[in-house]
């Protein structure tokens, strides 16, 4: 029997990262149809705008229920990587500040700095994943938008294109087609508004941390998953409402097909010029609903998953020592 001890990760950053990834996956699966609806609304032309129920009916009629889950595989992969990277760097930065302040809770400024570092690292590493996901989610909308721009009746050729668009492409197939047609730079389309959107999780997590600290000071106890659900929802509601115009622009840049040549400011001006300021808020209803539910589920799941991850790690460590 070997007495050598395998290396067991002991840092809480990894446990938080795994819990964040798991919570993100569960939340994404539960709310994905709302992502599909909001993303398509963000990239469709002004003439194509439809109500929430009409959008659902159209997608189901043309693509089946599976149309509401277009690109789910890439989204699950994307959210797991995104949350793992974000929470790892956020917890690492938070631990750094807490060590310097002898274990005191983070101040508002420190929370914002931690969020900025974690968010920037996450955007750079995961932007290509979300470009591919947006392309997959909006494939039908793009075919219809092209037809509208040509101002032609729906022809047999277009019907064929739409049917082909409805056939779910694979993540790898979408990635390879993107690289072949537009080059590697297309994978970083929308990275500037995505970096600007780092303010979204900064606002969200800063507000959450401060509400959590206030609750724990008042109750003199750790927050429950139910309270985390509510606080997470409130934080995300505020953050998404403030940053939504850049979310719209980012989605449009992901599907523009110009390799990201149009800048974020130019895209904002174009939308306002063509559709008015209301164009910056297309799809905000399902997006805010999805974001709030996702954040609420994530914060509720994450603490539970974190506790289970720590317990599992301890069990593995004890078994390794006995071995």
UniProtKB/TrEMBL annotation:
It is found in: Peroxisome membrane. One of its GO terms (cellular component) is peroxisomal membrane. The keyword Transmembrane helix applies. Keywords: Membrane, Mitochondrion, Mitochondrion inner membrane, Peroxisome, Repeat, Transmembrane, Transmembrane helix, Transport. GO terms for molecular function: ADP transmembrane transporter activity; AMP transmembrane transporter activity; ATP transmembrane transporter activity; coenzyme A transmembrane transporter activity; FAD transmembrane transporter activity; FMN transmembrane transporter activity; NAD transmembrane transporter activity. It holds the Pfam family Mito_carr. SUPFAM superfamilies: Mitochondrial carrier. Solcar repeats lie at residues 11-96, 106-214, 223-308. The chain crosses the membrane at residues 14-37, 68-89, 109-132, 186-207, 227-247. It comes from the Eukaryota. InterPro entries: MCP_dom_sf, MCP_transmembrane, Mito/Peroxisomal_Carrier. PROSITE patterns: SOLCAR (PS50920). It is a multi-pass membrane protein. Belongs to the mitochondrial carrier (TC 2.A.29) family. This is Mitochondrial carrier.
